[in-house]
Amino acid sequence: MLRSHIAKTALFVILSNSALHAVELRVGNGTFSWEMGINNFMKSDVDLNIFTVSLNEQHSNFNDSSMYYFFSADFYGSKTFDKVTQFASIPVTTNLPFYGGSISDIADQYTKIPVPSEYKIRGFDLNLGLGYDLYKKNNNFFGVGINTGLSMPVMKMRNYIESAEAVYALFSVTDTTLMTYKLGPALQFNYEFVPSVSLYGYASYGIQHGDMKNDWFLSSMNVDGRYSVVDIGVKYIPYKGSYDLGWFSVNPDLFITFGFTYKNWEVDDINVNLSPLFHADVSGMLTHKNSMHNVYFGIGYHF
Asked: Which domains does the chain have, with CATH numbers?
């Protein structure tokens, strides 16, 4: 709760400050790929068409210094998608560390059961950080920085068949919520190859740590892994203004962008919290990874 409150407060402060100087609104469409499974018992992988809405600031210097800040706040969601989920494909006798018995204690049969299911994704992804321009001249720059933030995708799955012999009500409806905090280096550049038209890019790679909750498990799971993000696009500035307001002058620019974003989250270690004194490592039994890519169009301004 405290980490979430700090993240929300930091986002509010940055967005409030940025809105006075610059802001960009992006809308896009893409694909969210989700894969989660329990080895030899269940596998669920699905590609969902998503829509995205983002608030973004690629690069904003503090006055005339070489220091700058950046952020992106992405909201995404999908319509419902139908896909078959495979349950209990072969006999499984491996003991479950968080249950104490085998899957044979849960299911009566081990026949492959294709269960029609529906999926829906929604989520929020925040990246924010500070950087330093190693090179900056006019509208061209190359900077390095530190990126942090959080990711919170929520996958909803519902099975159409509620009374399959080997699939009890426990498996008929499930939500999976993943919340991770991330930290890693970031690179950014902007190159104005013709007047008012620029090629820009952003990339970050780092570690992530957080919690994963699933309705199938009675307790939350600690997860550790890696994340990566790449954003590349073209910016066009159709309007540049200059106004003298007496005490000060402003130089507002209106710009539009068109670009592509790719994000990837990989979970390496998963630990189930059974009690304050006992944690079970289920990394070899549970698998989880997801990625997102989308094409977007943006419009924004800066002073």
From this structure: 2-302 (2.40.128.90)
